[in-house]
Structures are given as C-alpha cells and as structure tokens.
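Fold it.
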Amino acid sequence: MPNVKIRSHTLDIDIEGELRQYDWTRPRWTSDKLIAASPFRYDQTPSFYVNLEGDYAGVFGDSGAFNEEYASGGFVKLLSFLRQETYEETESYLLAEYGRIEPGAALKMPPIKLELPRKFELLSESTVTPATSQYLLRRGSDAETQAIYGTGYGKQHGFTAIPWRKPNGDLVNVKYRATRGKLFFYEKGAHPIRQLVYGIDVIHRLNVREAAICEAEIDAMSFATTGAVFGIAAGGVTFTEAQADIVKRSPIETLLLAGDNDKAGAKFNREIKRLLRGHVRFRDVDYSAYKDANEMLKASGTNGLRDLVGFSMSK
C-alpha cells in the first residue's frame, strides 16, 4: 500500500480501497489512477483524478474546479470531504485505522500522545440567522421543515447554515453548505460532529419515538419534509459510540436505517445495528435505484419517499 503522511506519521494506506467505498460518476480505474467526474461539484465529465500509487499517491486534481481550494490537494482533504467530516476527524480515523501494528511487522509510527478531553464552548445563537434557504427549497426541503431544524445563513456569502445542537438545544457547531456545487465546511474550533447527532434536539423537543437515521443533514430533512418521519444524521459515513450514547438517551424507540445506497452506507447501517442492538428496534430502508433520501425525494416527490416509510407523523 502507498505511503501517506498524516501529521508527523507515515502510514501505509489502502487509498483505492478507501475510495471504492463511494459511488463515483463515470469512473475509470487504472493501475495507478482513478479518473472520474468531480465529487466537489455537479459534474458529468471525467475531469477529476486521484493518484493511487507513487510519490504523489492520494493527491487529487480537478481541472474544472471553480473553487481554488479544491482544485487540487492531498488525500486527507479528499477523504474528509467524502466522509463529510472535518480534516482533523479524518486524520484521527486514518491514524486509528492504519496506525496499528501487524504481527511480525516493525512499528512504523511513534506512539500517539494521549490528550486530555478538550472543552468546547457553546456558540452564540447569533451565529445563524434563521431563514428559509432557497438552496434547500431546490433540494426539496420545505420552509416548515427548515424552520423545525433551524436552518438559515451565517456571515459567509453563498452558503446555507445548518446548525448542530445538543439534545437540550444548545448550539455547538454549524455546517456551511455551498449553494453552488457540493463544498462545505464547519464552524472553526467548534464541537466535533462525531460527538453529536444532527436533529437530536428536534427529537427531544417533539418527543419523537421513530426516526430515520441518515449520513447527511439534507437527507434527514428530506424525510421530515414528507410528513412521514423525522430524520437525524451522523454527519458522514461513520457512526460512533458517542453518537450511539446520544441516541440511547433519546425518546427514540425505532430507527429506520437510512444510510446511502452504496458500500459505505451499508457499512454505516451495520455499525448502527451493532452499537444500538437491544436499545432500539430497526427498520431497513430500500432506496431502490436511488442513492439516498434526497435523490429519491427530488426524483419521486414527497409521495415516493413517504411510501417508502409507510406511515405519517404530524409536524
């Protein structure tokens, strides 16, 4: 496996294996490169590449990028986007996944120093100005649903603000989603999303007993827009023990396993079952030919996604 430098460590990372967890548009895999449509924007032409081997393994380039920050970069930046998490959280994932010692192998990285848990401050409510996002309306989330989840805008022009809250409603992070393309970023220095569950404040506020658990926030809102079931989200393809504990302490009794319709989504659903077995009941979601809840909502409307759920709630 090719070497990738993570912080001060050099790890052997299965770059191709990591990338094959995700669905790509018009992919072409060669012995040393993936060529496909860009994951950072709505693109149908193979204008994006990732090196799989050699001195530049993991380095990507996007010839049609309209954001200079994502015209090129390293593997951690790319994977953090695909995993829908912060750069630091992806670094931690790679260190944990590939920093282990194989039997009979020499240690390739120094021991990682343990750090005391960091205390994160609450964000001011003025960080997000509540408003109906035209971008989310185009994605199918109606104004009522947006109001329930508290979406709006921040100081950054061209981004919709999606607030992340604790069960009691405290604002602890914000995801800023570009209204053009697929780029996003989180509030700098805020609470890690891997220790949060998106929409859990809605669950507690409305005493919701049945919910759909998704990877992304927009998919969670897509379910809520149907009037069939409220959605929550892990914020990416990883579901952690900290997130499982949050769900265990919520009113939720039944979860619809609603990860994306790909290998990473199937793994996501399995991990939820493993961590929450015995605490909630499960219902499987079958998107058929669609990738996720939002794609199904846009293609078949609220009726199609509502029929998938099979019952109604009152907002």
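Confidence is low (pLDDT under 50) at residues 101-116.
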